[in-house]
Amino acid sequence: MIEVAKFGKLAKAADNASNHEEAYGYYARILEIDPENADAWIGKALAAGWMSKLGRDRFSEVVTGCDEAIRLSSPEARTEWLLIEWPADEKEPTRYTLTTLPRKMSTKAIVRMTKERYRTEQVYEEMKGELGLDHFEGRGYPGWCHHVTLTLCCYAFLVAERASAFSPSAGGTLRAHALEAAA
User: Over the stretch 37-91, which tens digit does the pLDDT of each residue have?
Assistant: First the structure.
């Protein structure tokens, strides 16, 4: 372990002096001694990244280093949940979801977050289909922002109208009477 600390100090000093090839070598030595050292994986990835900017393509080393550092950094960093939706009237599950939400979240909160994704997709599809979110053919960013803003305003109006038509407190009766009186 003394060698790991020594090589770590040398690697950081080389990094601070912008000698990334030397730092890369020191981090590689640390990983030969202790392949579970997350700091060395990150340092090696960063040094490889700096060296790739200097003309050498080291993208795969950067990705590998970051992936190993994430895997080793903490057990919570890679907690995976498999959610299976199996309605009572079905013979087999209807939907599977693999997520990496934190371990400290409750099961109810994880299910709520997963369901929110589907609601968001439904809103997006509805905005594309009914309101023309995907019909923008302009050339500039300001025009695109204007188009999206108007589409979102129209969607907010539709949601408000639906809410007033099917109000849970009134059971939808007030809106129905208002429409009959208007007709």
Answer: 878 877 888 787 777 655 556 666 767 776 676 666 655 555 777 788 888 888 8
Q: What is the reported pTM?
A: 0.40
Q: What does the alpha-carbon distance between residue 33 and residue 39 come to, in Å, rounded to a whole number?
A: 13
CA dihedral 85, 87, 91, 94 (to 10 degrees): -40
Total domains in the fold of the chain: 1
Residue 40 domain boundaries: 2-75
**Domain contains 153:** no
DSSP string, 27-56: HHHHHHH-TT-HHHHHHHHHHHHHHHHTT-
Compute the average pLDDT of residues 11-17.
85
Residue 35 counted as domain residue:
yes
pLDDT confidence tier of residue 183, bands split at 50, 70 and 90: very low
CATH number at residue 42: 1.25.40.10
**Is residue 117 one of the residues assigned to a domain?**
no
Burial of 24 (0-12, 13-18, 19+ CB in 10 A): buried
